[in-house]
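REQUEST FORM: STRUCTURE PREDICTION
Request ID: SP-0412
Submitted by: Lab K.M.
Chain count: 1
Length (residues): 202
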Amino acid sequence: VIYYLLRRYSGNNSNYEPKLCGGDNPECNFIIDNICVNVEVKTPNYSKRIVQEQAESLKIFLAETLGTMILILLGDGVVANVVLKKTKGNNSGWIVITMGWAFGTFVPALMLSKYSGSHFNPALSLALACTKKIKWINLPFYFLGEFFGAFLGACLVFLFYYDHFNDSEEGEEEAKLSVFSTIPAIKNKIVNFFSEVVATFV
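STATUS: Completed
RESULT:
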């Protein structure tokens, strides 16, 4: 490798043919055109690289877990506060819900963007991997963090509003379900599908 590099960057002049030095000068590895050259060869530190890659993967997993948990906690939490009975924000309307989701997205993104990029969405992570913005090898850690964080956030919302879920009257199953999912006001599969595609794209 040293021979090739020296030949590559010294041109085709035969005077620059590298030759091994003798034992007279221990600091001299090669002689090029009667000039002593010391070449230090460093072997790659694979163990250090593996540790750095593992640390990066762990950082991504933890950041996506925490960020997605906060996103779902604030986002689903504000929905629960609006739609469930006997809450302080009951029937406060869509403006409260949209503001809650806005802050639920903004706060963890501001906190954790420098650690993982603040994806909080498997679709976004997959898109960035396809466009080579992130390494494919890190994609599973994004996915795991996002799914685990979403599950933790949903569990916290359920625990916080446990009494309100239990106190809801019969026939309010749709309101309870809407805390964790979207439900169309008028069921039309084609229109509902179209609206989801457009809204998700936007």
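NOTES: The beta strands are 19-20, 30-32, 35-37.
Reviewed by: T.R.
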